[in-house]
Amino acid sequence: MNLDELIAQAEQAFGAAADAASLENEKAKFLGKTGALTELLKDLGKLPPEEKREQGGKINGAKDRIEALLNARRQALADAQMNARLNAEAIDVSLPGRGRSRGGIHPVMRSWQRVEEIFRSIGFDVADGPEIETDWNNFTALNNPLNHPARSMQDTFYVEDKDSDGLPLLLRTHTSPMQVRYARHHVKHGQPPIKVIAPGRTYRVDSDATHSPMFHQVEGLWIAEDISFADLKGVYTDFLKRFFETDNLQVRFRPSFFPFTEPSAEIDMAFTSGPMKGRWLEISGSGQVHPTVVRNYGLDPEKYIGFAFGSGLERLTMLRYGISDLRLFYEGDLRFLKQFN
Ligand code: PHE
Q1: What is the pLDDT of residues 210-222, one digit of tens each?
Q2: Are 200 and 70 within one domain?
Q3: Are residues 31 and 179 in the same domain?
Q4: To the nearest whole percent, how much of the chain has pLDDT over 90?
Q5: 132-133 sheet: strands from edge to edge
Q6: Closest Cα to atom 10 of ligand 1
Q7: Ligand 1: which atom is nearest the Cα of residue 286?
Q8: Are 77 and 151 in a shared domain?
Q9: Which residue has a Cα nearest atom 4 of ligand 1?
Q10: How many structural domains comprise the chain?
Q11: Which of 235, 258, 282, 315 to mutate to test ligand 1, by most ligand atoms within 8 A of the CB atom?
């Protein structure tokens, strides 16, 4: 057998093996236990010593050569496999990253947070209460008895369940029932001063550019032995200056009526920017708490007096950013919302 021919055969067979498994099969044909070279080496024994050495050297040379061809092919196949993988799993590191934007705080929630911060800093507690209320807390305790015409000021969503008086439960139309809840709870555990704000969701059958069926209010209540209407003006004006970060505000307290305050005022503020510039917007009801309501807190109105206010958080936000339509807050349009983050 011509060794050069054998080497050429091996080279051809290894080259034709397309993957590692078939290459190992081909290897067996030449270098395996019954492979061509092994057979040749076995036959060496039959030769005379002189020839044995010479033939042995040649066969071993051929064996080295075939092993080298095998290793080269192994490496080539491994490289090809790696290259195929690298191509298939290629990552273009020059592509821009896939943006994952951070969520932002809704502008009305931002106002909510600011209001809490400001009132906390002047000693107000912050309270939270239920959105489904009893008729008594929402109306009657606030000097708004059944069948009183003032009830029609607030168009109400009723719930089918009844309270313990057999009256319908309702979605609170304002945060003012929190005056009653907080004050009555407070009175059980101690005496005034009562100094609290209660921000939260409120509901009315109402929908236009400045009204939404669900909206947010923040109630404020300060009751002690000597809290006057002047304190209301002072505290509220100071709050507005801090909320809007300017002393240069156009604000007016306009005489008004609420069953639960006497005297009462609506607080209006003028837009200083945006499409509504120069127009007035009502931001809050307010007043000196009515003696009947103080009595319903469980306190003696001859001894305790104070003020309450209930402000619209959407309204404050509209004024802060010069927004003309409050419905924008609830449409979920990111082009609108992104402007605030
Ligand atoms: N609750 C009133 C409203 O929603 C606002 C208000 C609160 C008025 C407290 C006076 C005192 O219209």
Answers
A1: 888 999 999 999 9
A2: no
A3: no
A4: 70
A5: 132-133, 168-171, 158-162
A6: 286
A7: 10
A8: no
A9: 174
A10: 2
A11: 258
Q: Please give the Cα distance from 133 to 149 (Å, whole number).
A: 20
Distance between Cα 84 and ligand 1 center (Å)? 73
3-state helix, strand, coil in the chain (%, to 5): 45, 20, 30
Mean pLDDT along residues 31-52: 85
223 close to 232: Cβ distance less than 8 angstroms: no
**Listed residue (188, 242, 240, 220) closest to 288, CA to CA:** 220
* Burial of 333 per CB tally in 10 Å (0-12, 13-18, 19+): exposed
Same domain for 146 and 210, yes or no, is yes
The total number of residues written for the chain in this structure: 341
User: Would you place residue 236 in the very low, low, confident or very high pLDDT band (cuts 50, 70, 90)?
Assistant: very high
State the closest ligand 1 atom to the C-alpha of 176, by its place in the atom list counted from 1: 1
99 belongs to a structural domain: no
Ligand 1 atom closest to the Cα of residue 202 is 4
| Cα(135)–Cα(169) distance, integer angstroms | 6
Q: Is this model's pTM higher than 0.70 or not?
A: yes
Residues with CB under 6 A from ligand 1: 174, 176, 258, 261, 264, 285-287, 308-310
CB 131 within 8 A of CB 329: no
Looking at the DSSP bridge assignments, the partners of residue 198 are 219
User: Could you list the residue range(s) of the whole structural domain that residue 122 is in?
Assistant: 107-330
Atom of ligand 1 lying closest to residue 173 CA: 4
pLDDT classification of 1: cutoffs 50, 70, 90? low
Q: List Cβ neighbours of 201 (8 Å cut-off, separation of 6 or more).
A: 131, 214, 215, 216
Half-sphere exposure of 152 (CA within 13 A, CB side): 3
CATH classification at residue 143: 3.30.930.10
The answer on 166 and 75 residing in a single domain is: no
**Atom 12 in ligand 1: residue holding the nearest Cα:** 285
- Average pLDDT of the segment spanning 193-217: 93
